[in-house]
Design goal:
The complex is a heterodimer of chains A (132) and B (255).
Chain A lengths: L1 H23 L5 H5 L17 H22 L8 H8 L14 H8 L6 H4 L5 H5 L1
Chain B lengths: L2 H29 L3 H10 L2 H4 L9 E6 L9 H10 L13 E7 L6 E7 L7 H5 L5 E3 L5 E3 L9 H5 L5 E3 L18 E3 L4 H4 L6 H8 L5 E5 L6 H8 L2 E2 L11 E4 L2
Parallel strand pairs in B: 1-10
Antiparallel strand pairs in B: 1-8, 2-3, 4-5, 6-7, 9-10
The chains are: A mainly alpha (132), B alpha+beta (255).
Chain lengths: 132, 255
């Protein structure tokens, strides 16, 4: 029991040390912590169709629902459209959401270790950029 | 059982009775004239159309005048390739959504040139054989492949008597934003569904008109006032392999 308590205390001390070491990297601690998180590029236009918290959690369902509506029923003017996502979130540098590791879709999905195959068929660039 | 519980159950029962009575009343009102049910059914169907989707009252079709189609002209094929991001190759592993064919009647020597693409059958065999439901017919008669559920088995390629389906063998890049395409899926003419949904016509028809041939006419076969419906009503036109009774939406004039 005592040994357990020592281990718990030890791990807390180590975690604190790690965190303080990480925060020592930047002036206010934000830079070092941010490097552990995915690089999310800001959208070129705003606001999004839903709050960021909602989008983070439900965007796969929104897209999956919308794709069936679009392909089978021909509903194209819907709120959640992959084309519109790409239109706003394409990177200014690459013009794409999935080309560079820091691009919007890939940036987060590689962080979360989720392999998506959307862009094996769908263009990852907005129409205007893709035609260039 | 305690007293308050009994009262609750009684109240629930009386509430249910009241609801059933009301429901029966409403049902009776609706059922009595009979016509009302039909009206409801008809009103329910075009709901997708009012929301901007495919209209089930429409049947999109093409009328191709083979007498105006010029031999050697491939403007429709080129326009299709450009619009849909196809390579334009004609090898065995290249996708071809529309082909120009030259036919000759042996006895008379009469030659004709005509484009052949997905005939958008009313009874599409590709839909019948698809094991995943990826091959489907939209409410407005356009036969499509849902690449999300296509497993690339190619049963539809075998089933189609018009050789209208292609299989994507290689990984693709630089697809058009409106036309997603990828390796491992079957594809075919979509009648430029992304343009139709925007109120435009197929790219091949536009290119044919631009070249001055006007051999292709696109429109709603179900609308008696449309030019295509008027023409198929007044002029002799044929469906390819009409003996198969697939009722294609593409018709040929002058064959």
């Amino acid at each position: 029991m005592r040994a357990l308590r020592v281990i718990a205390l030890g791990s807390v001390v180590m975690l604190t040390a790690l965190l303080s070491a990480a925060s020592a990297g930047g002036a206010d601690g934000r830079v070092a912590v941010a490097s552990l998180q995915p690089a999310i590029q800001p959208a070129s236009r705003g606001p999004c169709v839903a709050e960021p918290a909602v989008m983070r959690r439900t965007h796969p369902d929104m897209l999956r629902h919308q794709r069936d509506d679009t392909v089978h029923l021909g509903v194209r003017d819907a709120r959640a459209s992959l084309k519109d996502c790409i239109g706003c979130h394409a990177s200014a540098q690459t013009g794409s959401v999935a080309k560079a590791p820091t691009d919007f879709c890939v940036g987060c999905h590689s962080y979360a270790a989720v392999k998506i195959d959307c862009f094996e068929c769908h263009s990852s660039k907005p129409q205007a950029v893709a035609q260039r | 059982m305690s007293k308050p519980h009994d009262t609750g159950a009684e109240q629930a029962m009386s509430g249910r009775r009241a609801f059933l009575g009301l429901a029966a009343g409403v049902g009776g009102l609706l059922l009595a004239p009979g016509v009302h049910l039909m009206e409801i059914a008809h009103a329910a169907v075009p709901s997708a159309a009012t929301a901007g989707g495919a209209n089930p009252k429409v049947r999109w079709g093409l009328l191709i005048d083979t007498t105006k189609c010029e031999s050697g002209c491939t403007d429709c094929v080129g326009a299709c390739n450009t619009e849909n991001g196809l390579s334009g190759g004609t090898g065995p592993t290249d996708s071809q959504w529309i082909r120009k064919i030259e036919i000759k009647e042996i006895k008379t020597g009469r030659t004709q040139s005509l484009p052949v693409m997905c005939q958008h059958c009313a009874e599409p065999p590709c839909v019948d054989v698809c094991p995943t439901g990826a091959s489907f017919k939209r409410a407005d008669g356009i036969v499509l492949v849902d690449r999300h559920s296509c497993i690339g088995c190619r049963y539809c390629v075998m089933a189609c008597p018009y050789k209208a389906r292609s299989f994507v063998h290689e990984p693709l890049t630089n697809q058009k934003a409106d036309v997603p395409r990828g390796k491992g899926c079957v594809e075919g003419c979509t009648l430029c569904v992304h343009r139709i949904d925007k109120g435009q016509g197929p790219a091949c028809v536009e290119a044919c008109a631009k070249a001055g041939h006007h051999a292709m006419l696109f429109g709603d076969l179900n609308d008696p006032a449309s030019e295509i419906a008027r023409k198929v009503r007044e002029l002799q036109s044929t469906q390819l392999r009409a003996d198969l009774r697939l009722d294609p939406g593409v018709r040929y004039q002058g064959l």
